[in-house]
């Protein structure tokens, strides 16, 4: 048997309504939370030298038209760049491009975090109702010309699974 231990390192009241989704940035200390309050918040976990942790809110994305029910963060090349897939109660899926810059090499706190809309999947390709899960996987190694292809899988309350090829240029 494996021995497993755990401890709570941080607890914060993060949204005004139920939180339905969260996802870690696979290449950084940031994570995103999505809620019935129609918001996505980006957080970072800061661990001090004495191993005390705290959670700091980096930003709140503009409010969405529908409740956020699913999140999946794909790391790009570089420490903290990537795509955040956001699934909503109305079945729509949006992709947001994220990036982080650090000024000091020893600092875990980003000096600048940004997120911007990258792409909204066409409603006819999305789910007819609530998106329940989103998951990324790397589809191909780096293609010529600085492109990378990922696959985004989604499942929803409409009893369907959808898989999208997502090509990222200039990563």
TrEMBL record:
Chief location of this protein within or outside the cell: cytoplasm
Protein name as catalogued: Elongator complex protein 2
Swiss-Prot/TrEMBL WD repeat ranges: 12-45
Pfam families documented for this protein: WD40 (PF00400)
Pathway(s) this gene product operates in, as recorded in its UniProt entry: tRNA modification; 5-methoxycarbonylmethyl-2-thiouridine-tRNA biosynthesis
Gene Ontology annotations for the cellular component aspect, listed alphabetically: cytoplasm; elongator holoenzyme complex; nucleus
Compartments in which it is found: Cytoplasm; Nucleus
Keyword set includes Cytoplasm: yes
GO biological process per UniProt: tRNA wobble uridine modification
